[in-house]
Amino acid sequence: HYPLRRQRQMCIRDRAIRPSGQADHNVVLVQRAGTIMEESGEIARFVAKAPALTQLTVPNAPDASFFDVPLPYLQTLVVESGFDTQAFIENLASSTNLTALRSLDFTESTELHSTWADAREAGCITPFSAYEQLLRSAVGERLRALTLRNTCLNLEQLQACLLYTSDAADEEDS
To answer: Rounded to whole angstroms, what are the CA distances from 43 to 98, 108, 169?
Structure first.
């Protein structure tokens, strides 16, 4: 029986279980105990215990307290906003704690597909002005990869974002 039991253990140890994303119609949240779908600083409390992180993927947007935690080595950040962006892009644009950030993959709030535009609460969707603010900021200038998923930006706004990023690249080349 020993060889069989050892084989089962190895099989379990060698498998990876990956949580599926919102695109798979699942909802995963980091939320504070006793709250209803509120992150309330839980992500900030977690990353404060791991200041040497170089990559972080979170299933929902962290609140403003995330930007108070020094994360000098964080290079790659993947954020699926869940139900509320918590002004993530605006907070990121004015942040000073992510000096090594080079890659951002940001998925817009699920409110974009689940609520009609005239019924959405103010601030639940990232406005174009926030993306402009980010791309003009020191954080935006350091980004080398920016992926925006499910945004509500129109073609003209997306082209403007491309201009900001190409202007930054031109300045770096000169």
So the answer is: 15, 18, 32
CA distance 19 to 28: 8
The beta strands (E) that lie in the chain are given as 55-58, 76-80, 103-107, 145-149
Q: Residue 44: helix, strand or coil by DSSP? A: helix
Report whether 166 contacts 158 (CB < 8 A). Answer: no
pLDDT per residue as tens digits for the range 90-135: 999 999 999 999 999 999 887 666 777 777 777 778 889 999 999 9
Beta strands in 93-138 (DSSP E): 103-107
Spell out, as residue ranges, where the chain has pLDDT lower than 50.
Answer: 1, 4-18, 169
Report which of 124, 128, 104 is spatially closest to residue 112, judged by C-alpha positions. 124
Q: Report how far residue 152's alpha carbon sits from residue 109's, in angstroms, rounded to the nearest whole number.
A: 10
**Radius of gyration of the chain from its Cα atoms, rounded to whole angstroms:** 19
174 sits in which H/E element: none
Give the pLDDT score at 25: 52
Strand order in the sheet with 145-149: 55-58, 76-80, 103-107, 145-149
**How far is it, in rounded angstroms, from Cα 86 to Cα 60?**
9
